[in-house]
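tool_call predict_complex ligand=nicotinamide-adenine-dinucleotide
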Amino acid sequence: MKTVLITGSTSGIGLGIAIEFAKSGYSIAFNGLEENAAEIAFNVGEEFGVKTKFYGANIADAIQIEEMIKSIIIDFGSLDVLVNNAGIQYVSPVESFPIERWNSIIQLNLNAVFYTSKFVWDNMKKNKFGRIINIASAHGLVASEFKAAYVSAKHGVVGLTKVLALEGAPFGITANSICPGYVKTPLVEKQISEQAIAHGISEDEVISKIMLQKHAVKEFVTVESLGKLAVFLASENANLITGTAMPVDGGWTAQ
Ligand code: NAD
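tool_result ok
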């Protein structure tokens, strides 16, 4: 059975993606910073009868990523699918955007996608099979105010994905970005309060006037739909889908 590493998979979208891979019988390398992360990984393994293991690497650190990927290849035999999902957000106008926040967002949301891809490459190349799935964002395609670092990083991920697709093509490695609109996860819950302060409006108004206002379909995207798309992109049938940036955004970026 194939093995998938999903960064930031003990919360939100990453956990939703992990559950869909578990339903499809994949062995899963979990990663994330949640306190009960190892327990989450264990419970998914028990529930779906698949092999799971938790790795506590800080995805902002290239050395920890390299060590984690070496351990996964030893523990599972190979690493077939990489889902770059770990990500953070910070909302502030440009002039008061703290430089350290800019740096940490670029480090985790963009640089880490390069580090993980670099360190899985040799194994995927040897196997003549690999799938790299990057959870970018609608903000990888269009911008919103107050999200300078996030929008920059996610546009970078969409570009990096295209390079990985071109370089991976001779070796059976595909790379694609999934670009979700708003998904109600802990990351978005936190933004609701931050945006309310930045825009000077109530939290309900942030949801209706800012978030879902962007979607033509006035609903949050579900983690299940993103997980099922990721499982399809990982399949043999998706071998000619590469270098894409796929919006799952209720029609946001169609406008
Ligand atoms: P979340 O906060 O629920 O989950 C993020 C995960 O990343 C957590 O498991 C967290 O522990 C992990 N993480 C954070 N920093 C880490 C680090 N240094 N090392 C290892 N793990 C770390 O967020 P989410 O909403 O599920 O977001 C997941 C991804 O989806 C992010 O890349 C985000 O940008 C993207 N995304 C989210 C939305 C949305 O509306 N929620 C929309 C588009 C894209």
